[in-house]
Amino acid sequence: MEAFATAATALGDAWGLILQPVVLGYLILGVVMGLAVGVFPGLGGIAGLSLLLPFMFGMDPILGLALMIGMVAVVPTSDTFASVLLGIPGSSASQATVLDGFPMAKNGQAARALSAAFASSLFGGLVGATFLTLFILVARPIVLAFGLPEMLMVTVLGLSMVAILAGRIALKGLAAAALGIMIGTIGEADGGGSLRMATYDIPYLTDGLKLVIVGLGIFAVPEIVALLRRDRSIAKGAKLGAGWMDGARDWFANKWLSVRCSIIGVVIGVIPGLGGSVVDWIAYGHAVQTTKDKSMFGKGEVRGVVGPESSNNAKEGGGLVPTLLFGIPGSGSMAIFIGAVALLGSGDIEVGPGMLKGNLDITYSIVWLLALANVVGTALCIAASGGIARLTTIRFTYLAPFLFMLISFAAFQSGQNFEDLLALFAIGLIGIFLRRFDWSRPAFLIGFVLSNPVETFTNQAFQIASFRFRKSFEEGIEYIFSPIVIVLIVITIVSVFLGVRQAKAIAPEGEVESGSKRAPLIFLLAIAAYLLFAVVNANAIPDYNLTDKIVPLVVGGFALVCCALLLVRMIRRPEGDVIFADKEVAGEDADARYGLWSTLAWFAGLIAATWLVGFIIALVGFLITFFRVRAGATWLQTIVLSAGGIGLMMVMAGALNRDFPPGLLQAAVDLPWPLK
Amino acid sequence: MTTSSFTRRAVIGLAAAVGLATPAVADVDFSGKTIEWIIPFSETGGSAKWANFFAPLLSEALPGQPTVVVKFMPGAGSTKGANWFQEQEHDDGTLLFGTSGSTQFPYLLDDPRVRYEYNDWHAVMASGTGGVAYLNAEDGAGFDGSANTLQTIDFIYGSQGATRLDLVPLLAWKMLGMNVEPVFGIKGRGDGRLMFERGEATIDYQTTSGYLGGSLDLVNAGTAVPMMSWGALDADGNIVRDPTFPDIATFKEVCEATDGCETSGDAWEAWKAFFVAGFPVQKLAFLPAGTPQDVIDTYSAAFQAVIERSDFAEISTKRVGKYPVFVGAGTGEALNQATSVPEAAKAFVVNWLKEDYGVELN
Lengths: 676, 362
Known about the structure:
heterodimer, A: mainly alpha, 72% helix, 1% strand, globular, B: alpha/beta, D-Maltodextrin-Binding Protein, domain 2, 2 domains, 3-stranded antiparallel beta sheet, 13 strands, disordered N terminus
């Protein structure tokens, strides 16, 4: 009881600290800055926080915290704009939101989707903070109970969501997920440092592909290209149906789903090492499983927005636990946050176990500043959503060049290499074909996201388990089958069982007509060829580095079996069978005004020109040519729009101290920023 | 040249150089400019902490008070960033680069991916750290200052990789006759400590800041027992107790007390050489090749002003520990110490990595 009395006092002190006008002022300032940064896909909290760091030194701790937390807290809220309106997942927190949010925007319900998302975010953040206020007192032993087998099982639970999102042909979904895992193993292995599908001659590949690039490539590029080909607005008929009040009502109608997903978010956010990568998929899976009529998922089901959005702000709160109690950051922005906290005041606040003893008031201030920032941020976002939703009524040809600009810039920020753009294009191509042939893109992305955790946790848990087994059989069994693991296994089995039964009703790629055998067959063979090559490549790793090859071999082998079964089915089934799904046969893609390749060539042109003359000069040429030739704009329109785009790019990058991709020209001549 | 005479010479130079300031006579002015301090690691590591600590102080001390921003360019364990920096030339003095032990070790071990050359760059600041190894409560209960009772126990250790700074603890434990099995693939030492706290790892080590920030609480709570520190170097290049941990015996003392462990011979010389390269001078700040002397002097004077701040001892102790920060002429000696090991030590380590971990460096 005494602990709770102390906690209550600290909580009172925390509110005393927070509720000062100047603190709230700093918080709002941080929120506004965070929103400005967050609407840019791929930048997120890291860029914003790095910008604030120089000012943190010696700053009054509570003011510095208010500023930083205001900024970090709203990023998972504001990136909802890009994922719902444009189908661009800004961060790992908004990937699942794309699945139903973007189809809603296409149905003219952008404002409704946004306000449902924001209401859920807000509520999730508050539930998270409330839960955390009590939980943080007892969190330490619980966090320590999550060892490697437990983390592996949480990862497997995340992977099991593939069962729900596999699409109409389960084998295709499984193969897509396995392909995602294989793409995720590219580069230097964490264990022994062996190279998979990479060489030191191409240093870019040795670090593997970044999540931002794969997320943008798989979701954003195919959608941008598809919409651009149709040459109309995102919302069919350029009309906005439902307004933001409807979204708030949707959230209220699903408040219990929102509560459950918030709890899922906090609890999984608490586990260090997983970050937020699985949270929104598990929440999405939960939303699907608890919905009676599943026919609308993937086509604009509002529960598919409420679920993940409730979890991802709650997750930020949960993520504070490993950050504050163990000094282990759950994400890049949390890492900067830790560094910045040390700079505050006289440096008395040191994240770690001491946060619960001497600094409980500060800890509570952080928790509730986060919640408060959510409230402020959400209010601003909801206020803006009606206006911003009109973006979906603009003829898409006028939006597309800016989107190509934004995703290229976002991709470049992930690694600061020109190759980032090439990787974006290559993954974008994979995304386009996955979409065309109805292979589940969410399944692919889940595979990719969980590739590294699966591999690391499997290898490490195996090594420690065998160590325990050598001591005694009981110790080994006790280690592997802890109560938490058993519970997680049961949940996973139930979720797979339900998922398999439900998967047929859910079409993550929407309705797709089927056509002739040739194109789907070629795509299948191309994927099988890559998988075979990757397996042979992994097999060449010497046996003493078994940890580096076992996952690619097993997963790659599994994917090849899936491909072989699919091949048999393709040979046996007649043309027009559901297995030969092809968007180019009938439907919007087939009827589109422009061809795939001529549309994609514009994006390729931007990348090629960047390689020659650097991003900004290439962008000038790209925007002007695009508006004149493709959009048929007048010179005046062209110049105004191009100048606007370039100006926006330079203001953002300038304020955040970011560089642009350089080209051959920049290698030869020294140019001033922004041309350098 | 033997390692010890080599070390001694380097250290005498160092000791003489600490505190020597190069007076700034240059009229370099950074008003309105932005200094970019590139760190070839991610935002989560110790180097990020180090640069973020110095950046605002440096900003105040440089003429014109430029903004100093820390940028991260992680990849290939810092090799990517260092290879990139090698290609940079002096422009207007607004580019600074930071390295760590993980940049030094591949360079020392002739890793084929290394395309950078420390001697091309201009070091303007260097700082060191220490490290402490500790045991779990159960195995540590019988620890008597020697590793004799530990030789029959199997330990498990969360490691970032045998060719990184983990080389120093792994080799030390091997010399003590202990059976320590590394679990590779840890992303930072914080993850290693968490693994230890969960009881999955049974032995761990942290650098000074990590030990003070997290492990000390474990020791105070009785769940961890400090085993040894790596020590520090005195003016003659001898390993003495770490001033931050005067009560913890050094590896040298533990080795002397342990049967079969010798503080002479190939293994010892190799361990000492890599310890010297990785800890007493662990992190360095560089200006690129071709930087004119007046810019170098400006930075040297600024870092000198930073360490002369009246509150520097207080604010730095928590974050960088009680270790000398080398500026001015001292950095040259520091760099030399961090980037050279005798051939025999290198050969020993390369062979050991191959035999025990199957690591091929060519």
